[in-house]
Amino acid sequence: MNLGETSLPIPIFLAPMAGVTNAAYRRLCREQAELGCEQRPAGVFTCEMITARGITERIDKTFAMMAPDVEDPIYSVQLYGTDPLVVGKAISIACGEYGVSHIDLNFGCPVPKVTRRGGGGVLPWKLDRFAAILHAAVRAAEPFRVPVTIKTRIGIDNEHLTMFDAGRIAEQAGIAGITLHARTVDQAYSGKARWEAIAELVQDVSIPVIGNGDIWEASDAVRMMAETGCAGVSIGRGVLGRPWLFRDLASALSAGSYALPGSIDRLPGVLHSASSAQDDGVDSFPESIDRLPGVSPPHKVSSLRCGTLRGPRVLPGGRMTTGVEFGGEPRGNLPSCGEVAVMVRRHAELLVIHFGDERHAMADLRKHMAWYFKGFSLGGELRYALGLVSSLAELDDILARLDLDEEFPEKELHSPRGRQGSPRTKVAMPYNWLTSRTLDNFDLTGADLDTSGG
């Protein structure tokens, strides 16, 4: 697919997630995607959602959250705003002063504090304001030749659908693509994503549709594209604690089907070394980690030995496996506990570079630990220690105590990650919001003032 004038040979998108998709995590995911394919760019990796008003008011926190992955060829930022003038001005600043090369507009947030003021996933119900924001955004981005996309949902609930009107208005405004989270606002993150809605939107619009919702494995992305005809996929919660999913996605989409490599891909930051095990047809992982400038040297992490890839074996029914099949379907290589430990260490290093000190880096890393080691048999003591880690040296000591040869827990395949919650009996909205499809006398001045993201 094309993103404006940029060709995307690997149409995968990292969905913005508050407190997660900072420059360090985006780089980690991009590195993995680039391991899975030769084409560049290997996807679009978008920063966490920030408010347009935060940019126009020059709030330091906002610009800190916009920090780019300087090696990424696409500098992608997601904006949230309810005022066309503010959104347009914010885009002019972002593109003209900071070199942003892709703008995504969020119209899918289901958080009550946002929707009760007329923002997020309920804003597309007001067709005039929705159209005004899109036209203002495209006009502001046009001098910089920057494509603008939007993200939205099926509708507010089953009786108040918005995706078809949103798609029509997006086409008319010159929007480059639309990401559809295949849930309604009242579903939030609960229940099952309705991929059939993605297929319906694909049939209804001529601009690229990017599918989102319930992509937990690379096979899910391939199946979504095959079943819906969407041009690309956007992954959010599925990548929590699993940045290697982008390697599998890139490999699968670049090959047109699952690639089944004969050896595990090396992770960035790991030194390559020969092993006698290779003579037996088994690839093993090296024992040391490259150093990054400005990062203190590892301590016991140098003793980490990552797990090995099993050779072919016979499955029930006589079917052979290459050693990279799990759950009855071909897959990219799933990491052992030791390989996850290497990934965690890489993440820690990138966070130190991003924040400039170990204290802030480790504080950010701690929330990822439960995701990284979900399903592994670490035991309460090690999980507790990982949740309190405060320095790279301490992290190295803890990682060295893991059972590094433990295989990835197969039960976690296709398992939801991150927040899910329950469907809402009622979506918080301004009084009488649904009585008209136009804004009328509603005041949205405060709709984006306390939204996360500055």
What does this structure look like?
The structure is a single chain. The chain has 454 residues and is α/β, with parallel strands linked by helices. It folds into two domains: 2-258, TIM Barrel (Alpha-Beta Barrel); 276-410, no CATH class. 33% of the residues lie in helices and 12% in strands. It has helices at residues 23-36, 52-56, 60-65, 84-98, 112-115, 127-141, 163-173, 195-204, 218-228, 245-255, 337-355, 358-366, 369-372, 380-386, 392-399, and strands at residues 2-3, 6-7, 12-14, 44-45, 50-51, 76-80, 102-107, 148-153, 155-157, 160-161, 177-181, 209-212, 232-235, 313-314, 320-321, 325-326, 329-330. The strands form five sheets. It has a nine-stranded parallel beta sheet with strand order 4-3-13-12-11-8-7-6-5. Strands 1-2 form a two-stranded antiparallel sheet. Strands 9-10 form a two-stranded antiparallel ribbon. Helix 1 packs across helix 11, helix 6 packs parallel to helix 7 (163-173) and helix 11 packs across helix 12. Mean pLDDT is 84; it is low at 257-332.
Strand order of the largest sheet: 4-3-13-12-11-8-7-6-5
Number of strands: 17
Strand content: 5-15%
Shape: globular
Overall mean confidence score, pLDDT: 84
- The total tally of domains equals 2
Write the layout of secondary structure elements.
Blueprint: E1 2-3, E2 6-7, E3 12-14, H1 23-36, E4 44-45, E5 50-51, H2 52-56, H3 60-65, E6 76-80, H4 84-98, E7 102-107, H5 112-115, H6 127-141, E8 148-153, E9 155-157, E10 160-161, H7 163-173, E11 177-181, H8 195-204, E12 209-212, H9 218-228, E13 232-235, H10 245-255, E14 313-314, E15 320-321, E16 325-326, E17 329-330, H11 337-355, H12 358-366, H13 369-372, H14 380-386, H15 392-399
Parallel strand pairs: 3-4, 3-13, 5-6, 6-7, 7-8, 8-11, 11-12, 12-13
Antiparallel strand pairs: 1-2, 9-10, 14-15, 16-17
Helix pairs in contact: 1-10, 1-11, 4-6, 6-7, 9-10, 11-12, 11-15
